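Both lines are quoted verbatim for reference:

——
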Amino acid sequence: MVTRRRPRISELAPLLRPKPIEWSARRRRLDGALTIADLRTVARRRTPRSVFDYTDGAAEGEISLGRARDTFAGLTFHPAVLRDVGEVDTSTTILGGRSELPFSFAPTGFTRMMQHEGEPAVVRVAERAGIPYALSTMGTTSIEDVARAAPGARRWFQLYVWKDRSAGEALMRRAAAAGYEALVLTVDVPVAGARLRDVRNGFSLPPALTARTVLDAAMHPNWWVDLLTTEPLEFASLTSWDGPVADLLNSLFDPTMTLEDLAWVRSVWDGPLVIKGIQTVADAQRVTDAGADAIVLSNHGGRQLDRAPVPLRILPDVRAALGDGAEIMLDTGVMSGADVVAALALGADSVMVGRAYLYGLMAGGEDGVQRAVDILGAEVRRTMALLGVRSVAELSPGHVSL
């Protein structure tokens, strides 16, 4: 039989403490996001459909992206217990420099369209977090302005090879003059992929006003106010363009580029060279034999060839083929710190994240990008501790199986 008594006020007080009031709506939104998927939900709610779909979507049936995420979700970790993990070091070396976390910010185009704070917000977070940031050729902030926004950041410049080679040379020289330490050459876009969400949404830059976009504006007034009251939205490294993005890509990019053109790139750029978009063991060997310092195993986030190889699945074979030579980075489908750890265990030297930080940007500007880094960093640290490892170097294929 339970004996009841009258509760003492002193016992009730700890149970009735009110939660501190957070007056910032942005802060409340971000504090409630515990995962990158949560940030994605907030981003979807706060951003016009065509803009969100541009970030979130992939090519054709979006099979490549789905397979990549399914692969991460389906892997199995193998933890070692009774290990001293009182202190876990998440730092590593990327392209010869220290990175406080084993991932970098991938290059993404149209960033100010997703949220008006754009590339400067992202590079400032990278500077604070001590990780590299790659600025896209299709960026909406100039090479020089990004450098001024975060002079202490490790900055890389991503280049697409244009039909007009002189324009590419000019961009490389500007990046070198502004202190960008590495060039990321993207090689998986000879032509634009068929991104059907964008076609159905009539996606263009600048955004075109249609009946649908006017209705969307009514549902997302803050986004439109920010767009219309800040600097005009344009490609910082290109001449002005008015029309569908796929048409722009096809008009600019050179589908005749071959391996021999790496010599041309090297004749202009003498810093570290990263080749992004590698999807086979043979190509990994070809570009490293041709002088690449690092490769990115990537199918462009599923945005180019649908049914392309899943980067995580080919990673062990590429690692075995390259040995301890060129650095291997990996992207596509990365939505958590656990995904990052799995890629490291399977042979990647580091990981690139793109959509993850863009969801944060759309959810809450610079604060949202910082929240994304905080989430990913905490997940990396926790996953490493639960696996029984204290440093990135201790991760091995024995810690995970596909």
Notes: The radius of gyration is 22 Å. The first strand starts at residue 76 and ends at 77. Residues 27-392 form a domain with the TIM Barrel fold (CATH 3.20.20.70).
